[in-house]
Amino acid sequence: MIFCVEDDNSIRDLMIYALNAAGFAARGFQSGEELFERLKDETPRLVMLDIMLPGEDGLAILRRLREGAATRDLPIIMTTAKGTEYDKVIGLDLGADDYLAKPFGMMEMVSRVKALLRRAENKGAAGLLRIGNLSLNTGEHTIVANGQRVQLTLKEYELLKKFMENPGLVFTRDQLLQSIWGAEYIGETRTVDVHIGTLRTKLGDCGNYIETVRGVGYRLEAEL
């Protein structure tokens, strides 16, 4: 759902029509009051927010959205009839993701919406690594194998993260030892083998994703 906050009925209807034609569900609001009332029940994927609004203006609404826990990261495109550099700078400084100066074409608006949603989705997924039935969330430091949470030691976690960030790439034991344990670590490459063994065991069936390349080292299967 995309929310369009615009007090001009004709412009708002045209925006909603264009978004619907592009395959998006959209809902219109005349004021910030109506927007925040709806936000109590539904959080949209993106908000189109006009600066010049009756009562609370768009910049004040933007500030409130960025202060709210549920809407802090909500993608927002500002629109205004002013089109001045000052309004653009203020809006972006307050946390707007993009800016459209009126009059703007509906095709351009839809293109901007699609581009911002792609950026937002990529940002949201940036911390999630997934191979087959195995996923690793770098932000939360969590691992899920075959639908079950798995507890790993720090070194096991770092080994798995190294492999999942580089699927298909073969690492020698020396490379893993230096990368995970550090250049100053004094130990045997057998240390790597032991940790790989325990990692495979903890991952269950997903442990088979880590392949031994005979005479070289280890790699994580790129296609499963």
Please state the structural category: alpha/beta
Low-pLDDT stretches are: none
Number of helices: 8
Shape: elongated
CATH architecture of the largest domain: 3-Layer(aba) Sandwich
What percent of residues adopt helix (DSSP H or I)? 40-55%
What does this structure look like?
The structure is a single chain. With 224 residues, the chain is α/β, with parallel strands linked by helices. The chain has two domains: 2-125, Rossmann fold; 128-220, Arc Repressor Mutant, subunit A, CATH 1.10.10. 42% of the residues lie in helices and 21% in strands. It is built from eight helices and twelve strands. It has helices at 9-21, 32-39, 58-67, 85-93, 106-125, 154-165, 173-181, 190-203, and strands spanning 2-5, 26-29, 46-50, 76-80, 98-101, 128-131, 134-137, 142-145, 148-150, 171-172, 210-213, 217-220. The strands form three sheets. Strands 2-1-3-4-5 form a five-stranded parallel sheet, with helices on both faces. The chain has a four-stranded antiparallel sheet with strand order 6-7-8-9, with helices on one face. The chain has a three-stranded antiparallel sheet with strand order 10-12-11. Strand 8 and strand 9 form a beta hairpin. The longest helix is centred in the middle third of the chain and has 20 residues, at 106-125. The chain is elongated. The mean pLDDT is 87.
